[in-house]
Amino acid sequence: MSIQTLTNYFLEYGAFFIFLIVLLEYLNLPGFPAGVIMPLSGIWASQGEISFPLVMVLTVAAGLTGSWALYWLGRAGGDKVLGFYFRKFPKQKEAVESKIDMLREKGSVGVFVSKLLPMVRTIISIPAGMVKMDFVKYTISSCLGILIWNLVFVGAGYFFGEAAIRVLA
Questions:
Q1: 41, 14, 13: which is closest to 33 by C-alpha?
Q2: What is the tens place of the pLDDT at every residue in 112-135?
Q3: Digit-coded pLDDT (tens) for 9-48
Q4: Distance (Å, rounded) from C-alpha 35 to C-alpha 162?
Q5: Cα gap 74→158, rounded to integer Å
Q6: What global pTM score does this model have?
Q7: How far apart are CA 120 and CA 102, in angstroms?
Q8: What string of DSSP letters covers 22-86?
Q9: I want to staple 39 with a disulfide (CB 3.0 to 4.6 A). Which of 5, 53, 157, 166 is the partner?
């Protein structure tokens, strides 16, 4: 999918497009990677197509919404979800189990740090629900981690994206 195609979707669907793609990413569902759409939304903000604060609110809200859904999924039936996940991705069993142990030990600090790590940042919500982490602490630590992660990607697009497009084009 080209940048022009994504831009056309943005022009057609507006801010909802950004929210939806980032939500899919944080739900760990297939879709267009938020790591691409967030810098692109930063470029759109730098060009005046959408405001930078609105992009940040949308991406953090989408990230938090997806994280909450996975947290509650983990809380309600995490063992079954992880059983299915491990059958599909058996090599990740050891890593996920170590994250569960880390959450029991580190709590909300563990969630915050995990939200800053690729791959782990989306899946950590299920173990957090499984260990029945306090929801308010989970939300605060998730929100802070999501804010920093998204700020890096959206900010990169805002400040460097136009130059990167010129180099790649």
A1: 41
A2: 998 998 878 888 898 899 889 999
A3: 777 777 888 898 889 888 888 766 767 888 888 988 998 8
A4: 16
A5: 35
A6: 0.83
A7: 12
A8: HHHHHTT-SSS-HHHHHHHHHHHHHTTSS-HHHHHHHHHHHHHHHHHHHHHHHHHHHHHHHHHHH
A9: 157
CA distance 114 to 14: 30
The one-letter code for the residue type at 43 is: I
The Cα 135–Cα 137 span in angstroms is 6
CB atoms within 10 A of CB 121: 22
Q: How far apart are CA 117 and CA 145, in angstroms?
A: 9
The CA-atom distances, in angstroms, between 10 and each of 14, 21, 99, 101, 167 are 5, 11, 36, 41, 23
Residue type, 75: R
Question: What is the length of the chain?
Answer: 169
